[in-house]
Amino acid sequence: MEFHVSCNFHFSQTDTKSSEVKIPLNEMQLHSLPLSYIKRIAMNQMRRQNPESGLSEYDGAEDKIDAVACYSREENRWYADDCVCLTDICPGHPIKTLELVLRNYMPPPTLDVTIFGTQNCASDLLMSFYTSYRIRVTFGKMTWQVSRRYREFDHLHCLLKEKYGEAFSFALSDSTVSYLGKAIVKFPPKQIFGRLESDTIDRRRVMLEDYLQRLLHAPKPPTLSQDVLILSFLGIVSTQKLSNKSVGSDSINIDALDKQIDFGDILLFSCRFGSSICQRKFTGSRFDHVGIVIPGLRGGNLRLLEATGEGIRVYPLIARIKTYAREVTERIVVRSFLVKRDPESARCLLAFVNSVDGNAYSFLSIFQGLNKSDRCVQQKQLYDEEKWSQAFVSPLQNFTTQSVEIAKSVVASQKTKQSPHKRRKYFCSSLVASALKELGWLQTKRSCSYFWPGSFEEHGEIERSLHPGTTLGKEIDIDCRPVEVATATFTS
Question: Which positions fall inside the PX domain (predicted)?
């Protein structure tokens, strides 16, 4: 066996000669030596052939050897792994011709994707089923998997069309470029009604794979295959901070969240529902839902207390956030209270949780708080007392003032027999405000139903109603999308 090794770069600016060496090897050497041996021998011989190159002092230096890679022009193949055995690169060939090329001239590894299957999944929030497409992504020697729903494909498609305009449409319909023999790749349409049949899902899987392949191999626009939207979709980078750049907020990964927050902190949600969007427009807020972090059981993981259509419920914190992020929300932020916490505060909050857990949810209850300033609350109390008295005194003129007072005291005593928390219906924001009042962190004469989810955002009304010495921190975005490339496996 004989290796013919040439060099297509110069060792120095004064070196203008081409270098080529021949390295004969026996059968034992072929089975025992790595490719790095060929590189080392070839570079040493080339330097001896060109003593004026000025690099003779680097003979055998590992940093110089690592700076070059081997390329086979006949195979159009790069051999970048120096540990590969020589028998693996020249099976059955008596002569192997290689070129030594600087590694920075190597073409970058290409992304390759395959949708190798589908999976039926159940929604934890919406009580429905959906299909998840399982994508295998390969980059060089790295391979990982991501799962995406059709609506995530559709969202990516809409973002790319908005970003690139006509250039993006041209990238998918350019007949001069054909990948896998397909000149035109169409994005599969939506199906509005009914469940998808298995053959429809399979056709959609093929179309989505062709769509991704075209995105990665389209020559125009030249930056399309490296667009951060596509890289995020394939699990290579996270765009959480980029998507909320206009807000100017910080970000924290979901895996580190439970170590950075504590009970009493609040979570704000921006959901995709039509009613949620209308609520945000009506209130002028960026958020439409709020929950509060509560202690775990017996010192366990933190939990989330919230009021939804299911009523007042307690959920595991991290699992609940991941479910929200996967199914219904566009953004989730956390705001932490800068206040001293002690066991008594935790017991107080847990007592409140036990008193409201299972209560009913009421969106209409929030309207009871409209226009309830401190002054309005006092005026309404006076008005209610006057109206109540008239209701009893007017039709019964023969009642004495004393009998009216007795009737009032009887009604009041009946009301105090019931727990005010147990009989109350809550909206999400009134629930959180009530919890903060129980903790003593919220100090206001306003009714808890006065506050909307937007009251808890930065510079909102909650900050102006906090107890002296209590501070609410800034909004920190929770990055819930995993970067799947971190789970990649490596192939030799």
Answer: 111-241
